[in-house]
Write a structure and sequence with these properties.
The structure holds two protein chains of two kinds.
Chain A (H helix, E strand, L loop, with lengths): L1 H24 L2 H29 L7 H22 L5 H18 L15 H35 L4 H5 L3 H34 L7 H22 L4 H26 L8
Helix pairs in contact in A: 1-2, 1-4, 2-3, 3-4, 3-5, 4-5, 5-7, 5-9, 7-8, 7-9, 8-9
Chain B lengths: L5 E7 L5 H4 L11 H7 L3 E8 L3 E8 L3 H11 L7 H6 L2 E4 H12 L11 H15 L5 H20 L2 H20 L6 E5 L3 H11 L5 E6 L2 H10 L3 E4 L3 H4 L5 E4 L10 H10 L5 E5 L16 E5 H7 L4 H53 L8 H27 L7 H12 L2
Helix pairs in contact in B: 5-7, 5-14, 7-14, 8-9, 8-13, 14-15, 14-16, 15-16
Classes of the chains: A mainly alpha, B alpha/beta.
Chain lengths: 271, 421
């Protein structure tokens, strides 16, 4: 399993390198190769998860290594599905880099298989955790879109054209990418919170008890809810949307890691 | 000298503000300017060029100050300016200067955006109109057609045309980077100018939904709007219209700013932050540079756009220099052609004089040679003709010569005096 994981990690790195090379020289062949390698990585990753499931005997999203690996897996597949629906120039470069970064985090976390604590032995575990992580994956893609938007906008606004102007798509395309990611990520986030709360009712008897992870996921939810709401009412789009989706993703990441490491609480067994 | 008979009186964006240029004579006037020109005493040939940025009267005639005044009077008839004021807002070129000026105009070296391609078409149209109104004779025919070929030479031998085309192309590229597709986007032209029209045409070819034209004078706006099948609004409605448009190209000749940051800021809220791409191609600037600090507003002036196409300034100036040299060279050539026209009458006079002598002498002598056989009589006649040709050969060359020790006019005078022509 560790072998499969490490192999996946390596393939992702190679894919990211190819994407970066493509980003610089913009040769089609390189992009095709990068894409194929990335698909290969995604398939390997799936195999690694299945293998891990078989050894664990439960869905492999119970510790930081597994959770972040699942996060990376969701992001990769989310990107590939997105790409099938509509293409955004050089999006793969940014996504693959973020996937590699996630894999780094996953790799340095303990890969030890620990027996499941009693509280987690529930059918809600795979449902809640995978939905929450998939939400993070789409929000992460929105984050990539936001970063790309700001890079592109900075060059257009400052009228100094560097590496990004030619390579990144139009501001309009980046803004709608951001919005698309949000329209998938936000319902998933909402669903993640709802399923979590139902599970909490079953496990601990109350729907909501303001443990740090719950609080932070609610904060994240409010950030994205505000963005979605004001997008339609006040025209929070483009630059503002990009910035908020970056902040929102920061909040989501903090919910995933910061809370576990810094604040503790009921969810702290994850990690 | 014949070249001195050429005269160009004109008004362009460099010498007169838009308030003056708007009130000048126009091809659409009830009496066509070419017809009016032909009625002036001392004017033999005339052509009238009117564009957004310039009005030029090209005429061949006696080159007198009276004629110049009459032309100015026609140009400024609608503006109620005195002749001394008209003199201040116009330029008058004669002879060599006029040649150089027209060549520069045709080659687009005198344009607001150097190298913009439309001026040549406008000049051709002016020429056609002058031909239709019988304003063009030998000299202007040669002169204006020469300006076309000079412009063509400049265009093929330098990259001056690349400048304007690539600037408007860059504007389109930028618009696409901001808006994605340009379909259903609206463009507003504020003021008029060759460059603004060029950019608008480029944008229209990208599927722009509508062109809105705003101008100080609504009539001009309507005229331009018709060209783009668009809508005309008055300049007072500019701010109100901002919420309906996506791209604004400003090229008014206004002295101050046309649009300020404070005026646009509240509009952005109404626009729900949908982006606004502002292109300022006016000199001096029309749009407040602080506008670029507003969120979702992207302000570009000509220099910024030029940076986009990465044609650096020194390269542009180099092209303009090369173009300038070509124009100079051609102007000198044309002037010498005109001077050679000046020589022709003297040569004809000289030939006629000697020919008359030959004929007179022949008539006096022939009766006395009647006893000679017909063949020998012919030989004598032939001898005289070839003598005349041999004698005239050098004086003719002397008149035509370019490298002669003295000025052509002096040589003409010398020959005329010598032969009492």
């Amino acid at each position: 399993m560790a072998l499969l994981f490490n192999l996946t990690f390596l393939v992702y790195i190679v894919a990211a390198v190819f994407y970066v090379v493509y980003f610089i020289n913009q040769k089609r062949d390189i992009r095709t190769m990068a894409h194929l390698i990335f698909v290969g990585g995604a398939l390997l990753h799936t195999a690694a998860l299945v293998a891990r499931y078989l050894t664990d005997g439960h869905t492999p999203i119970t510790n930081m290594h597994e959770a972040v690996s699942f996060f990376a897996w969701s992001m990769t597949w989310g990107f590939l599905i997105f790409r099938w629906r509509y293409k955004v120039k050089n999006f793969g470069t940014f996504v693959s880099i973020l996937v590699v970064l996630l894999m780094v985090v996953s790799a340095v976390s303990s890969q030890e298989v620990i027996p499941l604590p009693p509280a987690l032995r529930s059918n809600w575990l795979p449902i809640h955790a995978s939905i929450a992580l998939m939400a993070d994956a789409f929000l992460a893609m929105g984050f990539c879109g936001g970063v790309m938007y700001l890079l592109q906008e900075n060059e257009i606004k400052s009228r100094r054209f560097g590496i990004f102007y030619e390579r990144l798509p139009s501001l309009e395309a980046l803004d709608s990418l951001n919005h698309h990611c949000l329209t998938v990520g936000f319902p998933l986030l909402t669903l993640g919170i709802i399923t979590g709360s139902i599970w909490a009712r079953q496990a601990w008897g109350t729907y909501w008890q303001w443990d740090p992870k719950e609080t932070w996921s609610l904060i994240t939810w409010f950030i994205y809810a505000a963005l979605l709401h004001f997008r339609f009412t006040l025209g929070w789009r483009r630059r503002r949307a990009a910035i908020i989706s970056i902040i929102g993703f920061g909040s989501a990441l903090f919910t995933l890691w910061g809370v576990s490491y810094l604040l503790g609480g009921l969810h702290s067994y994850v990690g | 000298m014949l070249a001195d008979n050429l005269m160009i009186i004109g008004v362009n964006h460099k010498v007169a503000p838009v308030e003056i240029r708007e009130k000048l004579a126009h091809t659409g006037d009830c009496e066509n300017p070419v017809v009016a020109l032909k009625k002036m005493s001392g004017c033999n040939e005339g052509c009238f060029l009117g564009t957004c940025n310039r009005v030029e009267v090209i005429c061949a005639g006696d080159g007198s100050d009276e004629l110049a005044m009459a032309v100015r009077h026609m140009l400024f008839a609608r503006s109620n300016l005195s002749d001394s004021e008209a003199l201040k807002y116009s330029y008058t070129y004669r002879g060599q200067e006029a040649i150089l000026h027209l060549f520069q105009v045709a080659a687009s070296l005198d344009s607001m955006i150097i190298g913009e391609p439309q001026i040549l078409g406008q000049l051709k149209k002016a020429y056609r109109e002058a031909v239709e109104n019988k304003g063009v004779g030998t000299i202007l025919n040669k002169f204006i057609n020469k300006s076309f070929s000079v412009a063509k030479r400049v265009r093929t031998e330098t990259n001056i045309g690349g400048n304007a085309v690539s600037i408007s192309f860059a504007a389109v590229q930028l618009a696409k980077k901001i808006f994605g597709s340009l379909e259903y986007k609206r463009v507003m032209l504020v003021g008029a100018g060759e460059m603004a029209e060029l950019a608008a045409e480029h944008l229209l070819s990208q599927g722009i939904e509508e062109v809105v034209v705003a101008n100080r004078t609504l009539a001009n706006a309507v005229k331009l709007a018709r060209q783009f099948k668009g809508r005309a609004v008055s300049l007072d409605d500019l701010v109100a219209e901002l919420k309906n448009i996506d791209i604004l190209i400003s090229s008014t000749g206004a002295r101050g700013l046309v649009l300020r940051r404070e005026e646009v800021k509240p509009v952005m809220r109404q626009r729900m932050n949908s982006p606004l791409f502002l292109i300022d191609i006016a000199v001096p600037r029309d749009l407040d540079p602080a506008l670029n600090n507003l969120d979702n507003v992207y302000l570009y002036d000509i220099d910024n756009l030029t940076d986009v196409v990465e044609v650096n300034k020194s390269a542009r100036e180099k092209e303009a220099d090369r173009a300038g040299r070509i124009v100079q060279e051609e102007a000198v050539k044309f002037a010498s052609w005109l001077e050679s026209l000046a020589v022709t009458p003297t040569i004809i006079d000289l030939r006629n004089k000697i020919e008359a002598i030959r004929r007179a002498e022949l008539e006096r002598t022939m009766p006395r040679l009647s006893s000679l056989p017909r063949k020998q009589q012919q030989a004598v006649e032939l001898m005289m003709t070839s003598m005349v040709n041999k004698i005239l050969h050098h004086p003719t060359l002397f008149l035509k010569a370019d490298k002669g020790s003295c000025v052509q006019q002096e040589r003409i005078n010398l020959v005329r005096e010598m032969f009492d022509l």
